[in-house]
Specification:
Bound molecules: zinc ion
Structural class: alpha+beta
Oligomer: single chain
Number of helices: 6
Number of strands: 15
Length: 236
């Protein structure tokens, strides 16, 4: 549920930095949550930067407009600063995500981006939402798939490393609550490897059923978590 997603946590469980909140309209605009006043979140539209592929003038015109999101109980209430933005909202699938380190977002082209979990540290996202019209003709955010209505975090992912004797070990995990699957990734690189241009470490990848409890991620629990990862890696 969106209200629970917004409030699930506001600090990174790995490094304690404040999390940043974003909203993405598929194939359209990208938003960053700005001020939060009296429980109303203001999402400012960002159309992206011009690339060789060109720009989309209709999206560029909406850059700087905002969507306001608030809650009445569990019900999401939205408002837009322009009709143009409200109309655009109805055309796209929408999801929200929190990211620890904004450096994890890489602009890929106009109105497109990718996320590096290694740089981003911690990430969690909602299922897809869309604006649906109810019988009283009002529009409200609802999950695209009704089966996913109760899901708080669709994906919850994190990455961390440990460096020992010139060897960096990188551990990553994603908990997917729609597929009910946990993905694990692991690779290691030496300082020498990093100097080789285009070096691609051998990536270990494993899928296990969804963990019933997300492991503790804090620094004080890190050694135990690494032990658990090493167990999964050895078992495969
Ligand atoms: Zn973090």
């Amino acid at each position: 549920m969106l209200s629970q997603f917004v409030n699930y946590n506001h600090q990174c469980p790995l490094c304690n930095e404040p999390l940043n909140l974003y909203m993405r309209w598929q194939d359209s605009l990208f938003f960053q949550a700005k001020s939060v006043e009296r429980d109303i979140i203001q999402f400012d539209a960002y159309a992206g930067t011009e690339t060789k592929a060109g720009t989309k003038p209709e999206l560029e015109a909406l850059s700087g407009e905002s969507m306001l999101l608030g809650f009445e109980g569990d019900k999401a209430l939205t408002e837009f600063t322009s009709n143009g933005l409200a109309n655009e909202a109805k055309k796209h699938h929408i999801y929200f995500f929190y990211l620890c380190n904004p450096k994890g977002i890489k602009q890929k082209g106009f109105a497109d981006f990718s996320i590096s979990l290694y740089k981003g540290c911690y990430y969690r996202s909602t299922p897809f939402y869309e604006f649906k019209q109810s019988e009283d003709k009002t529009w409200a955010l609802d999950t695209v798939n009704p089966d996913f209505k109760e899901i708080v975090n669709k994906d919850e992912s994190f990455a961390f490393n440990s460096i020992e004797d010139n060897l960096e070990k990188v551990y990553m995990m994603n908990l997917d609550h729609e597929k009910k699957e946990t993905m694990l990734w692991y690779y290691s690189v030496t300082e020498e490897d990093k100097k080789v241009k285009g070096f691609r470490p051998k990536l270990f990848e494993k899928s296990v059923p969804l963990l019933s409890n997300r492991p503790k991620l804090g620094r004080e629990d890190r050694a135990r978590l690494i032990e658990r990862f090493d167990g999964w890696i050895i078992m495969s």
